[in-house]
Amino acid sequence: DTGVSQDPRHKITKRGQNVTFRCDPISEHNRLYWYRQTLGQGPEFLTYFQNEAQLEKSRLLSDRFSAERPKGSFSTLEIQRTEQGDSAMYLCASSPRVTGPNYGYTFGSGTRLTVV
Amino acid sequence: KQEVTQIPAALSVPEGENLVLNCSFTDSAIYNLQWFRQDPGKGLTSLLLIQSSQREQTSGRLNASLDKSSGRSTLYIAASQPGDSATYLCAVLTQGGSEKLVFGKGTKLTVNP
Hints:
The complex is a heterodimer. Chain A is mainly beta. Helix content of chain A is 0%, strand content 48%. In chain A, strand 4 (31-37) and strand 5 form a beta hairpin. Chain B is an all-beta fold. In chain B, strand 9 and strand 10 (101-103) form a beta hairpin. Chain B is globular. The model of chain B has no long low-confidence stretch (mean pLDDT 94). Chain A binds chain B through residues 6, 33, 40-45, 48, 56, 89, 91, 93, 98-110, 112, and chain B through 4, 31-32, 34, 36, 41-46, 49, 51-53, 89, 91, 93, 95, 98-106.
């Protein structure tokens, strides 16, 4: 297993365009998370899935954001009508089970979005 | 609502020095605490995970401690090297309700040769 994969690594887009990011979690992990990180800040939670079900969405996730995880495998995060404030690193993570003290998160390398 | 604070925000030390990074959290009902490393423009690499029932974890030159009752954790780095230069992030997984990792803002470490 190669860990959590994210694609693309970098994306530059013009304001108003739509963008889509992909995350492939570790295969046996049933939980998948999306975080956003701006410069000098820690990652902030956006949303998470348990298998194909989206269980929680942050208030940071405006109506322009949508995430899917069809068939409980890979996930996509789409941002419609991008704004300059959307410029950030988008991080994906997965974990092997619902909860518990033994299970940490594994993060991908992130997708850096720049909106010009 | 869980809040995580990391002090200092930045730290610069000469090579070879031992150092301590601090993390505090407001809600002690946690499953675990993770320390991550982040290089500039990169994703997060997990360094250590401490379960709520544990007091410390060690990996190589790294030692992390946890005092759940006081809401504190420290990351000790022995004999620092220039390659240790990175941002170190602390995150807690809180029990009950919204079970997701909550992060601090990180400590940016620079180890000077």
